Amino acid sequence: MNRDFTIDFYLRQTWQDPRLAFGDMFFGYQNGKIESLTVGVDYLDKLWKPDTFFPNEKKSFFHTATTHNSFLRIDPDGTVFTSQRLTVTATCPMKLQLFPMDSQKCKLEIESYGYTTADIDLFWGKDRKDQGQVVGFENISLPQFRPVGYRVNVTRATTSSDEYFFFIRVYVRLYFEVLLARNLGFYLMNIIIPSMLIVTISWVSFWLNREASPARVGLGVTTVLTMTTLITTTNNAMPKVSYIKGLDVFLNFCFVMVFASLIEYAVVSYMNKKLAQRRERRRKQIEQRIPTEMPMYNQITSNADAKMSYQNMTLINDCASLPGKSSIQQMDMLLGGPGQNPNLSVTEAMMPECDCRTIPLMQNPRLVTDQTFWPAPFMKPKRASRTCRSVTPSKIDKCSRFFFPMLFLTFNYGYTIATIHYHWCQLKDVNCKTAVKVEPFELTSYRFTNLCINKTIATTSSGSYSRLWAQFLFERQFSFYMIQIYVPAILVVFISWVSFWINPESAPSRTVIGTLTILSETHLLMSTNRRLPPVSYIKAVDVYLIFCYLNVVLALVEYATVAYSKKKYEDEEKNKSKNIFELKLQAPDLLRDARIDECTCKQEIFLVAKRSPKCTNCCTHSRVDLIARIVFPISFLTFNFIYWTVLLSLSGWRTYENNMEQKAC
Asked: Residue ranges of the Neurotransmitter-gated ion-channel transmembrane domain (predicted)?
């Protein structure tokens, strides 16, 4: 992108030179009078003419095919009229703070190079009255911009070329200013939407098991590298400016989002490791404090494999609130299991130093002898810190699943007939078709199909002119794009489906397939649009490539759903396995223990068994893969059928229209 604009226009100038007036001269035709004298442009160098130039011009040239595109006309009163076709590339100091939703004002300045206001006066239109009609600005279409309006005006320009001689020169300067609004379509399809999808892919990491380090790290690194490539390629095509553009804010925020997703897993992994080390260290300390001998609370003579059903163990403060047997008898039954002697009682001996912080039952090899169960000792450990109780790796992942999308969505809410006639053929035949003969030829990307010639009248401010035009119809050869774009895109989508047949346990394999297919589709989309002109509308190939891109993204999202569903399923299976268990004394976990308020050491603490609820998870991870194996191919085949049907239909209709135009010729 260069901060300039190129305009192809007809520069028409008129001035009056009394020396060229020829009055009502009689030449013996047209009632003896000449309305105007049209001569070749070669005579222009022999006449006086204004030294017009463009102050903000970078380069310009006159058109010389097939001859010099200019003419000279002299009226009887000495009025000289010239028209020249030229192309000017002028500077346009664009302000890109709002890019790509910006509007630009580009100006073309016209000024006399040596004549000051004391020598010459420049103005728009005839007699300064029709300034709004001096510029023909209708039916203009640009690929990247939409013309909104224009204006013409006159100003004064002061130069300092003669300051050494203590003179200040003032010149008349005309300028033509056009307002252009940038079309967002190209940047939306090639930059904004891919960036949003890459950020969305980075959120898949929050739904994967935190133990799957290769999958989560690979996904995070891949999204960071993809965003880096996208930012680099985008800025290489932009002018080097010192301020921050609107697109820079968006892309850098997307980069921060994917980078924060990777940092989030680093925090989760570090906390998970530290918590595991802390639990292991606490368990070792407790095992070292256990006395070698403890008074036996109960003798159990039944089978040690006696099992009971429980789901959640609840600590009860008020033992008198339970109906039926006394608290001591209920504790005996829980410790002894079913079928035990109800007369067995719990020894009233109590350790002298106890605390209301309860510790779950534990089983230690030193405490089990001949099927004898021991209750957990009451100790006085330190109170768990508030940070350990409120921030866990699982909570960080759960908060990230909500916080990252909400932050990204919030940010997104936050560019003349009287002189000469032209006609085809030797005779003035309107239906002449043999004036242009096309020999057989071959093109690499197109196939010539038709030719249409016609004649029309072009009306400009200088008069009406005869215009001939020839229209050539070409059809694009499809084989190159089929081999280079469509077939690779289809194969990449097929490769993404391989993930549905891989074991859900192999997280690195499925994640690598997903990320590599996304990178391939991103590269294919960007390289294709780099070869095509940047237009504002959506092309047919854009629709196809974007759908393929969504397919591979959804394939990766599907694995995130499978991994999350698998984790939930395994958690429910673990809870089911606790319904029937062998009563064992468990080691105390000081991080999960709860302190009972206002209790005394004489209160009895026992466990209450609850019935486990029914499992409501009807959609397992294996079923998700089975459904994906069917839904993804069917949806892709359906899209291809609709896409190619519509494309062929529109192509056939365009061919029909061209044939009708050919008949009209």
From this structure: 191-415, 485-583
Query: What are the DSSP calls for 268-314, one per residue?
Result: HHHHHHHHHHHHHHHHHHHHHHS-S---------S-TT-EEE-S---
The whole-number pLDDT of residue 387 equals 46
Q: What pLDDT sits at residue 651?
A: 73
Task: Say if residue 588 is preceded by a cis peptide, omega within 30 of 0.
Answer: no
Task: Report how far residue 262's alpha carbon sits from residue 202's, in angstroms, rounded to the nearest whole number.
Answer: 8
Domains with residue ranges and CATH for the chain: 4-182 (2.70.170.10), 186-274+396-413+479-534+618-660 (1.20.58.390), 420-477 (no CATH)
Mean pLDDT within 523-550: 83
Query: Which residue from 552, 531, 555, 556 is spatially nearest to 541, judged by alpha carbons?
Result: 531
Report pTM: 0.53
- Which residues does residue 111 pair with via DSSP β-bridges, in sequence order? 53, 173
Q: Is the Cβ–Cβ distance between 394 and 271 less than 8 Å?
A: no
Contacts of 524 (CB under 8 A, 6+ apart): 485, 488, 489, 492, 545
Burial profile 157-185: b = 16 or more Cβ within 10 angstroms, e = fewer: beeeeeeeeeeebebbbbbbebebebbeb
Taking only the tens place, the pLDDT of each residue in 78-130 is: 889 888 889 999 988 888 888 888 888 898 999 998 888 888 888 887 776 66
Residue 484 has pLDDT above 70, yes or no: yes
Please choose, from the candidates 508, 565, 499, the residue with its C-alpha nearest in 3D space to the C-alpha of residue 211: 508
d(CA 619, CA 565): 8
Is the distance from CB of 125 to CB of 134 less than 8 angstroms? yes
Strand ordering across the sheet containing 103-112: 52-53, 103-112, 169-182, 145-159
Q: Name the CA dihedral angle for 215, 217, 220, 223, rounded to a multiple of 10 degrees.
A: -70
CA atoms within a 13 Å half-sphere pointing along the CA-CB vector of 186: 19
Quote the tokens at residue 541.
Answer: 């190939």
Which long-range CB contacts under 8 A does 638-641 form with residues at least 24 apart?
639/547
